[in-house]
Fold:
Amino acid sequence: PSGENGEPEYVTKGDANEDFDPPKISDKDIIGKVRLTIPYLGYLAFAAKKPWGFILLVIVPATIFIYEELKAVLKELRKRMGKHSQC
Structure:
């Protein structure tokens, strides 16, 4: 969209209302710069909001992590129990 003198202008709108914000933003008013882009990262966020995505991205990795930690704890307990039985 272009405003006066053919310069780009942007219209903003909040998430919680249906109306656009009154002042239009010109190109010179934007001070942010893109430092990093990660293509398709938004798809992960979108998927995590769905039940199947939540299961795949949160539940499965958490289950694997807990399983591996329990394995390590049990191994350590067995090792300590073996030392105590030798005394």
Remarks:
- The longest strand covers residues 9-10.
